[in-house]
Amino acid sequence: MTVAPAASGVHRFAARAMGSPLRLTLVGSDDRAAATIWSAVRDDVEATEQALSRFRESAELVGLNRRLGVPVPVGDRLYRALTAAERARRVTSGRFDARVLRDLERLGEHGATAGPRTAAHPAEDVPPGEPSVRRRPRSRLVRIEEPIDLGGIGKGLALRWAARLVERLAAEGTAEECGYLLEAGGDIACRGPAPDGATWRIAIEAPDEGVAPAAVVAAVGGAVMTSSRLVRHWRSPAGDDVHHLIDPATHEPAGDGLVSVTVAGPDPAWSEVWSKSLFVAGRGGIGPLARSRGLAAWWIDADGRVAMTPAARERTLWVRDEAATA
Fold it and tell me: What angle do CA 280, 91, 99 make, to 5 degrees?
Protein backbone atom coordinates (compact mmCIF):
# COMPACT_ATOMS: atom_id res chain seq x y z
CA MET A 1 0.00 0.00 0.00
CA THR A 2 1.40 3.42 -0.94
CA VAL A 3 0.93 6.62 1.02
CA ALA A 4 1.10 9.58 -1.36
CA PRO A 5 -1.30 12.47 -2.04
CA ALA A 6 -2.82 13.03 -5.47
CA ALA A 7 -1.32 15.75 -7.65
CA SER A 8 -1.69 17.14 -11.16
CA GLY A 9 0.41 15.50 -13.85
CA VAL A 10 0.06 12.10 -12.19
CA HIS A 11 -1.11 9.04 -14.12
CA ARG A 12 -2.41 5.93 -12.39
CA PHE A 13 -3.12 2.59 -14.04
CA ALA A 14 -4.34 -0.74 -12.67
CA ALA A 15 -4.88 -4.30 -13.92
CA ARG A 16 -4.37 -7.85 -12.67
CA ALA A 17 -1.29 -9.97 -13.29
CA MET A 18 0.57 -12.79 -11.54
CA GLY A 19 -2.51 -13.51 -9.44
CA SER A 20 -2.51 -10.06 -7.82
CA PRO A 21 -3.28 -6.40 -8.56
CA LEU A 22 -0.74 -4.67 -10.80
CA ARG A 23 -0.58 -0.89 -10.42
CA LEU A 24 1.60 1.81 -11.95
CA THR A 25 1.81 5.43 -10.83
CA LEU A 26 3.72 7.79 -13.12
CA VAL A 27 4.79 11.31 -12.23
CA GLY A 28 5.99 13.77 -14.89
CA SER A 29 4.93 12.02 -18.13
CA ASP A 30 2.36 13.39 -20.57
CA ASP A 31 -0.82 11.46 -21.38
CA ARG A 32 0.47 9.75 -24.51
CA ALA A 33 3.82 8.76 -22.98
CA ALA A 34 2.11 7.45 -19.85
CA ALA A 35 -0.30 5.30 -21.89
CA THR A 36 2.59 3.94 -23.95
CA ILE A 37 4.56 3.05 -20.83
CA TRP A 38 1.60 1.30 -19.21
CA SER A 39 0.90 -0.73 -22.35
CA ALA A 40 4.55 -1.79 -22.51
CA VAL A 41 4.56 -2.72 -18.81
CA ARG A 42 1.48 -4.91 -19.18
CA ASP A 43 2.96 -6.68 -22.20
CA ASP A 44 6.28 -7.19 -20.41
CA VAL A 45 4.70 -8.60 -17.25
CA GLU A 46 2.49 -10.88 -19.36
CA ALA A 47 5.58 -12.23 -21.16
CA THR A 48 7.25 -12.91 -17.81
CA GLU A 49 4.17 -14.65 -16.43
CA GLN A 50 3.90 -16.82 -19.54
CA ALA A 51 7.53 -17.87 -19.03
CA LEU A 52 7.60 -18.34 -15.23
CA SER A 53 4.12 -19.20 -13.98
CA ARG A 54 3.45 -22.63 -12.49
CA PHE A 55 -0.33 -22.11 -12.65
CA ARG A 56 -0.76 -21.73 -16.42
CA GLU A 57 -0.93 -24.93 -18.43
CA SER A 58 0.74 -23.13 -21.35
CA ALA A 59 3.57 -21.57 -19.31
CA GLU A 60 7.13 -22.45 -20.22
CA LEU A 61 8.06 -23.41 -16.65
CA VAL A 62 5.17 -25.90 -16.54
CA GLY A 63 6.55 -27.56 -19.66
CA LEU A 64 10.00 -27.76 -18.10
CA ASN A 65 8.62 -29.21 -14.86
CA ARG A 66 7.03 -31.98 -16.93
CA ARG A 67 10.35 -33.04 -18.43
CA LEU A 68 12.43 -33.83 -15.37
CA GLY A 69 15.89 -35.20 -15.99
CA VAL A 70 15.83 -34.21 -19.68
CA PRO A 71 17.87 -31.34 -21.21
CA VAL A 72 15.27 -28.85 -22.48
CA PRO A 73 15.83 -25.68 -24.55
CA VAL A 74 14.23 -22.68 -22.82
CA GLY A 75 13.57 -19.05 -23.68
CA ASP A 76 15.55 -16.07 -22.45
CA ARG A 77 13.30 -15.10 -19.54
CA LEU A 78 13.08 -18.57 -18.09
CA TYR A 79 16.81 -19.12 -18.55
CA ARG A 80 17.62 -15.88 -16.73
CA ALA A 81 15.15 -16.71 -13.97
CA LEU A 82 16.60 -20.19 -13.44
CA THR A 83 20.11 -18.71 -13.38
CA ALA A 84 19.00 -16.12 -10.79
CA ALA A 85 17.32 -18.81 -8.66
CA GLU A 86 20.44 -20.96 -8.64
CA ARG A 87 22.64 -18.01 -7.67
CA ALA A 88 20.18 -17.10 -4.91
CA ARG A 89 20.38 -20.66 -3.56
CA ARG A 90 24.15 -20.41 -3.33
CA VAL A 91 24.27 -16.89 -1.84
CA THR A 92 21.67 -17.66 0.84
CA SER A 93 23.31 -20.98 1.79
CA GLY A 94 20.21 -22.85 0.69
CA ARG A 95 17.63 -20.84 2.65
CA PHE A 96 16.22 -19.93 -0.73
CA ASP A 97 15.68 -22.95 -2.96
CA ALA A 98 13.18 -23.10 -5.80
CA ARG A 99 12.80 -26.88 -5.49
CA VAL A 100 9.76 -26.71 -3.21
CA LEU A 101 6.98 -27.53 -5.67
CA ARG A 102 6.58 -31.12 -4.46
CA ASP A 103 6.26 -29.82 -0.87
CA LEU A 104 3.57 -27.29 -1.86
CA GLU A 105 1.62 -29.99 -3.67
CA ARG A 106 1.94 -32.39 -0.73
CA LEU A 107 0.58 -29.66 1.55
CA GLY A 108 -2.36 -29.05 -0.76
CA GLU A 109 -1.49 -26.09 -3.01
CA HIS A 110 -1.71 -27.22 -6.62
CA GLY A 111 -0.99 -25.44 -9.86
CA ALA A 112 -0.39 -27.11 -13.19
CA THR A 113 0.81 -30.61 -12.36
CA ALA A 114 4.50 -31.43 -12.68
CA GLY A 115 5.33 -34.39 -14.89
CA PRO A 116 6.14 -37.87 -13.58
CA ARG A 117 9.50 -39.54 -13.99
CA THR A 118 9.97 -41.87 -16.90
CA ALA A 119 11.79 -45.19 -16.94
CA ALA A 120 14.37 -43.64 -19.29
CA HIS A 121 15.08 -40.88 -16.78
CA PRO A 122 14.63 -42.25 -13.25
CA ALA A 123 14.78 -39.95 -10.25
CA GLU A 124 18.20 -38.98 -9.02
CA ASP A 125 19.03 -38.54 -5.36
CA VAL A 126 19.86 -34.81 -5.38
CA PRO A 127 21.41 -33.64 -2.09
CA PRO A 128 20.29 -30.16 -0.90
CA GLY A 129 23.72 -28.66 -1.69
CA GLU A 130 23.67 -29.77 -5.32
CA PRO A 131 22.74 -27.27 -8.06
CA SER A 132 19.02 -26.91 -8.66
CA VAL A 133 19.58 -26.35 -12.39
CA ARG A 134 22.20 -27.67 -14.79
CA ARG A 135 22.72 -25.22 -17.64
CA ARG A 136 24.43 -25.11 -21.02
CA PRO A 137 24.77 -21.37 -21.70
CA ARG A 138 25.48 -21.52 -25.43
CA SER A 139 22.55 -23.76 -26.32
CA ARG A 140 20.27 -22.49 -23.52
CA LEU A 141 19.59 -26.08 -22.55
CA VAL A 142 18.65 -26.68 -18.93
CA ARG A 143 18.03 -29.84 -16.95
CA ILE A 144 16.24 -30.03 -13.63
CA GLU A 145 15.87 -33.09 -11.42
CA GLU A 146 13.12 -31.69 -9.18
CA PRO A 147 10.16 -29.48 -10.22
CA ILE A 148 10.65 -25.80 -9.54
CA ASP A 149 8.48 -22.99 -8.18
CA LEU A 150 9.57 -19.50 -9.26
CA GLY A 151 6.69 -17.67 -7.57
CA GLY A 152 8.43 -15.15 -5.32
CA ILE A 153 11.61 -14.60 -7.29
CA GLY A 154 9.49 -14.60 -10.45
CA LYS A 155 7.51 -11.62 -9.17
CA GLY A 156 10.74 -9.91 -8.17
CA LEU A 157 12.17 -10.43 -11.65
CA ALA A 158 8.94 -9.25 -13.26
CA LEU A 159 9.20 -6.01 -11.28
CA ARG A 160 12.92 -5.69 -12.08
CA TRP A 161 12.41 -6.07 -15.81
CA ALA A 162 9.27 -3.92 -15.98
CA ALA A 163 10.87 -1.16 -13.88
CA ARG A 164 13.85 -1.02 -16.21
CA LEU A 165 11.42 -0.72 -19.11
CA VAL A 166 9.61 2.16 -17.40
CA GLU A 167 12.89 3.97 -16.82
CA ARG A 168 14.03 3.51 -20.43
CA LEU A 169 10.75 4.63 -21.98
CA ALA A 170 10.38 7.55 -19.58
CA ALA A 171 13.89 8.75 -20.40
CA GLU A 172 13.10 8.60 -24.11
CA GLY A 173 9.85 10.52 -23.72
CA THR A 174 10.74 13.48 -21.54
CA ALA A 175 13.68 15.65 -20.56
CA GLU A 176 12.23 16.15 -17.06
CA GLU A 177 12.75 13.85 -14.13
CA CYS A 178 10.03 11.22 -14.13
CA GLY A 179 8.99 9.34 -11.02
CA TYR A 180 7.20 6.01 -10.91
CA LEU A 181 5.93 3.40 -8.50
CA LEU A 182 5.17 -0.07 -9.81
CA GLU A 183 3.29 -2.38 -7.44
CA ALA A 184 2.39 -6.06 -7.75
CA GLY A 185 0.36 -7.42 -4.86
CA GLY A 186 1.98 -5.11 -2.31
CA ASP A 187 5.55 -5.55 -3.58
CA ILE A 188 7.07 -2.30 -4.82
CA ALA A 189 9.62 -0.99 -7.31
CA CYS A 190 10.03 2.78 -7.51
CA ARG A 191 12.32 5.62 -8.42
CA GLY A 192 12.27 9.40 -8.70
CA PRO A 193 9.87 11.83 -7.00
CA ALA A 194 6.45 10.88 -5.61
CA PRO A 195 3.39 12.95 -6.59
CA ASP A 196 4.12 15.47 -3.83
CA GLY A 197 7.73 15.81 -4.97
CA ALA A 198 9.05 13.96 -1.94
CA THR A 199 10.27 10.40 -1.44
CA TRP A 200 7.84 7.57 -1.99
CA ARG A 201 6.36 6.47 1.33
CA ILE A 202 5.41 2.81 1.71
CA ALA A 203 3.16 1.35 4.40
CA ILE A 204 4.03 -2.02 5.91
CA GLU A 205 0.71 -3.64 6.68
CA ALA A 206 -0.10 -4.85 10.17
CA PRO A 207 -1.40 -8.43 10.57
CA ASP A 208 -4.66 -7.12 12.10
CA GLU A 209 -7.15 -6.14 9.43
CA GLY A 210 -8.69 -2.69 9.64
CA VAL A 211 -5.98 -1.11 11.77
CA ALA A 212 -3.22 1.36 11.05
CA PRO A 213 -0.15 0.05 9.23
CA ALA A 214 2.66 -1.36 11.33
CA ALA A 215 5.10 1.20 9.92
CA VAL A 216 5.65 3.68 7.11
CA VAL A 217 9.05 3.67 5.42
CA ALA A 218 10.86 5.77 2.85
CA ALA A 219 11.63 4.02 -0.43
CA VAL A 220 14.77 5.73 -1.68
CA GLY A 221 14.60 4.15 -5.14
CA GLY A 222 14.78 0.41 -5.68
CA ALA A 223 12.33 -2.01 -4.10
CA VAL A 224 10.33 -2.90 -1.01
CA MET A 225 9.38 -6.61 -0.96
CA THR A 226 7.46 -8.61 1.64
CA SER A 227 7.18 -12.31 2.46
CA SER A 228 4.12 -13.05 4.59
CA ARG A 229 2.28 -16.14 5.75
CA LEU A 230 -1.02 -14.24 5.77
CA VAL A 231 -1.64 -14.08 2.01
CA ARG A 232 -1.36 -17.69 0.88
CA HIS A 233 -2.40 -19.98 3.71
CA TRP A 234 -4.78 -22.93 3.86
CA ARG A 235 -5.56 -26.18 5.67
CA SER A 236 -3.48 -29.13 4.51
CA PRO A 237 -4.93 -32.59 3.75
CA ALA A 238 -3.69 -33.60 7.20
CA GLY A 239 -5.71 -30.79 8.79
CA ASP A 240 -2.80 -28.48 9.63
CA ASP A 241 -2.75 -24.71 9.08
CA VAL A 242 -0.01 -24.20 6.49
CA HIS A 243 1.36 -21.51 4.17
CA HIS A 244 3.46 -21.26 1.02
CA LEU A 245 6.82 -20.18 2.51
CA ILE A 246 8.66 -23.49 2.71
CA ASP A 247 11.91 -24.18 4.56
CA PRO A 248 14.01 -26.20 2.07
CA ALA A 249 15.78 -27.93 4.95
CA THR A 250 12.66 -29.30 6.63
CA HIS A 251 10.23 -29.31 3.66
CA GLU A 252 7.64 -27.73 5.95
CA PRO A 253 6.23 -24.20 6.30
CA ALA A 254 8.93 -21.87 7.66
CA GLY A 255 9.12 -18.77 9.80
CA ASP A 256 8.87 -20.01 13.38
CA GLY A 257 7.43 -17.10 15.36
CA LEU A 258 7.15 -14.73 12.35
CA VAL A 259 4.17 -13.32 10.45
CA SER A 260 5.91 -11.24 7.79
CA VAL A 261 9.31 -9.93 6.71
CA THR A 262 9.89 -6.84 4.56
CA VAL A 263 13.19 -5.96 2.90
CA ALA A 264 14.09 -2.72 1.11
CA GLY A 265 16.97 -2.78 -1.34
CA PRO A 266 18.16 -1.65 -4.75
CA ASP A 267 16.73 -4.62 -6.67
CA PRO A 268 13.26 -6.25 -6.46
CA ALA A 269 14.42 -9.82 -7.10
CA TRP A 270 17.18 -9.78 -4.48
CA SER A 271 14.94 -7.98 -1.97
CA GLU A 272 12.40 -10.78 -2.50
CA VAL A 273 15.06 -13.48 -2.09
CA TRP A 274 16.24 -11.98 1.18
CA SER A 275 12.74 -11.44 2.57
CA LYS A 276 12.07 -15.16 2.00
CA SER A 277 15.47 -16.22 3.36
CA LEU A 278 15.04 -14.11 6.50
CA PHE A 279 11.58 -15.58 7.00
CA VAL A 280 13.07 -19.07 6.81
CA ALA A 281 15.57 -18.06 9.52
CA GLY A 282 12.66 -17.59 11.96
CA ARG A 283 12.33 -15.20 14.86
CA GLY A 284 15.47 -16.51 16.55
CA GLY A 285 17.77 -16.19 13.54
CA ILE A 286 16.46 -13.28 11.55
CA GLY A 287 18.25 -10.46 13.39
CA PRO A 288 21.80 -11.81 13.17
CA LEU A 289 21.35 -12.86 9.53
CA ALA A 290 19.87 -9.51 8.45
CA ARG A 291 22.57 -7.53 10.27
CA SER A 292 25.37 -9.65 8.83
CA ARG A 293 24.12 -8.78 5.34
CA GLY A 294 23.55 -5.10 6.13
CA LEU A 295 19.91 -5.43 5.08
CA ALA A 296 17.16 -2.91 5.69
CA ALA A 297 14.62 -5.38 7.08
CA TRP A 298 11.44 -5.10 9.16
CA TRP A 299 9.58 -8.06 10.64
CA ILE A 300 6.40 -8.67 12.59
CA ASP A 301 6.29 -11.58 15.00
CA ALA A 302 3.35 -13.74 16.01
CA ASP A 303 2.58 -11.35 18.90
CA GLY A 304 2.26 -8.40 16.52
CA ARG A 305 5.52 -6.76 17.57
CA VAL A 306 7.62 -4.94 14.98
CA ALA A 307 11.40 -5.23 14.92
CA MET A 308 13.93 -3.87 12.46
CA THR A 309 17.60 -3.67 11.65
CA PRO A 310 19.62 -0.47 12.11
CA ALA A 311 19.58 0.04 8.33
CA ALA A 312 15.79 -0.21 8.37
CA ARG A 313 15.41 2.25 11.25
CA GLU A 314 17.20 4.88 9.16
CA ARG A 315 14.40 4.57 6.56
CA THR A 316 11.49 4.37 9.00
CA LEU A 317 9.25 7.45 8.98
CA TRP A 318 6.63 6.21 11.41
CA VAL A 319 5.93 3.07 13.42
CA ARG A 320 2.66 2.18 15.16
CA ASP A 321 4.31 1.02 18.37
CA GLU A 322 7.88 1.48 19.50
CA ALA A 323 9.82 -1.13 17.58
CA ALA A 324 12.87 -3.03 18.67
CA THR A 325 16.10 -2.67 16.75
CA ALA A 326 17.64 -6.10 16.30
Answer: 60
